[in-house]
Amino acid sequence: MTEFLGLYNYWIVIFLMMTGFYIVIARENLIKTIIGLNIFQTSVFLLYITMGKVTHGTAPILKSSHGGESHGGKSHGAEHGQDLHAATEGHIDLSVDAVTEIYSNPIPSVLMLTAIVVGIATTALALALVVRIREEYGTIEEDEILEMDRNS
Amino acid sequence: MMDFIVIPILALLAATAVTVARIRNLWAAVMFTGIYSFLSASWMLILDAPDVAFTEAAVGAGITTILMLATLSLTPRRHRKSSRLSSEDFEERPSKSPVIPLLIVTITGCALVYGTFDMPHFGDPNAPIQVYPEPSFVEKSQPDMHGLPNVVTAVLASYRGYDTLGETAVIFTAGIAVLLILRKNTDDQGISESPPLTGENA
Predict the structure, then answer these.
(1) Ordered domains of chain A (ranges, CATH)
(2) Which residue of B has its CA nearest to A112?
């Protein structure tokens, strides 16, 4: 049982994802469909972000505030000694006084920042199309639109 | 200690998603989508992704809500909908049965849950995602970026700078497409609907 409890984050994401999926396929209102797509999208963001989390980790913002050159030399030297450590414990900042800090993975954050911004672009485009469809058909209900298409 | 924060947030997140699925009133659904975005931003903050949380709160809860409200104001409700949207917000339409979509969603969800059994556990430091892009780039980023402490910013703006440039191109394309879609109407007819459309364009 406990070996499955560690997967709870995926299950919550899947629940949210399936709720969005249900809205997309079951609702006939076009705006509602876009809302469902948004929920689906946000759950995908959450999927990536949960995968980047490391237990007892913190946000990937480096604590030490040295100047560029000197810190570069020192951390490079320390890195060789503790390579094995870094491989087993995820992201570790090897600061000068060897205080290890565990950071969560920054890569999912980066990918999802891009995805959020692209997502708003597609949402805006979809909403513009809805406005246009409403001007043309006078409705945003999918079944009514299909009916009009069939009759014409 | 963290569980006392995480569990209510996740419960609220699930409840909000279900409410969005059930509610009929579009204005309320848009508002609940904003709440959903804020809650997921809160969870992202707990998951050590403050940059994503800020962006989600600003873009997901802010701009998306504004765009949806603008769309709602541009698509006035007609008689048939206004009767349905007034008071019985949770009423199911009798015309379409929700059984088949529910079935599809359940089957898909079960397949996805089955797929998670092979996934690494939550927070596992030995998960492939933590080990495989050599983690030392985290500490190398600071000298590379002349002392910039935020690794996410370093990767986004420098290591993956071309990706961000492409993202900007996507935004630009989408903006132009929105302008073209909405402007077409003013060229064709340009009588009744033009004032709100130019307002949207600006």
Answers:
(1) 1-53+106-152 (1.10.287.3510), 58-104 (no CATH)
(2) B52
